[in-house]
From TrEMBL:
Residues 244-267 are annotated as: Disordered. Belongs to the gas vesicle GvpF/GvpL family. InterPro entries: GvpL/GvpF. PANTHER family: PROTEIN GVPL 2. The lineage of its organism: Bacteria, Bacillati, Actinomycetota, Actinomycetes, Kitasatosporales. The keyword Transcription does not apply. Keywords: Gas vesicle. This is GvpL/GvpF family gas vesicle protein. It comes from Streptomyces pyxinicus.
Length: 267
């Protein structure tokens, strides 16, 4: 078997063509596979990379995984500019077009329900970070500090640190409540690990908001107005994205899917 069918997303038929230079996994251009009144966005990928054994090995290769995730996301981003896509998991593959059509037919009702809910909406991400404490200046040579003074300073620093975190958590909760009222739906994800964040600081809010595309400008302006509300706190806005956080359980292929198909990790 020389090739498999990789599925990026399912959507409704749309009239605006995708970018002519758009490429997907392995540089292959995405194509539209229509089944009844739904469309799967697909491309051909080599079985040597996406068979069950090969895929397990590749998922341990961070460089391969990152390049594949970027190509997958590039197709989703392009779709988001022309329609409302329902993204599928990274590395969702089938043996051929027939397998893709069977998957669509099996989950047709779920797809329509999700697309009805997401139609005309995009996802915005908002994160709040507590900025790191500034480095303390080197102590000047001076007279020795008594044990009592040392403990007092420690208590003061600890109290200030606790107050800062309480303010940050209160700000994050208030911000989430305000943004959620202006969105059609919202999700609170677990705070990101420091190693995965895009800048310094501790993540205290990791929210996703489903916003009508027509109201996105107002949503962005609202977030921008909050960025100077709390000193020592950074607000980060990302998007607009396809509505990953609001997609229900993704479809899994039938028995005729390719080995390992549809079981990859989400991007």
């Amino acid at each position: 078997m020389s090739g498999l069918r990789y599925v990026y997303a399912v959507c409704r038929p749309f009239g605006t063509p995708l970018q002519a230079q758009l490429t997907g996994i392995g540089g292959a251009p995405p194509a539209l596979l229509r089944h009844r009144d739904l469309v799967a966005v697909v491309s051909s990928v080599p079985a040597a990379d996406f068979s069950e054994d090969s895929l397990k090995a590749h998922l341990e290769d961070l460089d391969w995984l990152a390049a594949t995730a970027r190509a997958h996301q590039g197709v989703i981003d392009a779709l988001t500019t022309v329609t409302t896509p329902l993204p599928l998991r990274l590395a969702t593959v089938f043996r051929d077009d027939s397998g893709v059509r069977s998957m669509i037919e099996e989950r047709e009702e779920d797809f329509h329900s999700a697309l009805n809910r997401l139609q005309g909406r995009v996802e915005w991400g908002v994160k709040v970070y507590v900025e790191p404490e500034p480095a303390e200046p080197a102590p000047e040579p001076a007279k020795p500090v008594s044990g009592r003074d040392y403990l007092r300073r420690r208590r003061e620093r600890s109290h200030a640190h606790e107050e800062k975190w309480q303010r940050a958590e209160g700000f994050a909760q208030s911000l989430h409540e305000r943004l959620a009222r202006c969105a059609d739906d919202s999700r609170l994800h677990a705070p990101q690990n420091n190693a995965l964040t895009s800048g310094p600081g501790q993540n205290v809010l990791n929210g996703a908001y489903l916003v009508p595309r027509a109201h996105s400008e107002e949503f962005v302006e609202m977030v921008d107005r909050t960025k100077d509300e709390a000193p020592g706190i950074r607000v980060e806005l990302t998007g607009p994205w396809a509505a990953y956080s609001f997609t229900e359980e993704q479809p899994r292929g039938r028995a005729d899917r390719a080995p390992g198909g549809g079981e990859g990790e989400e991007s």
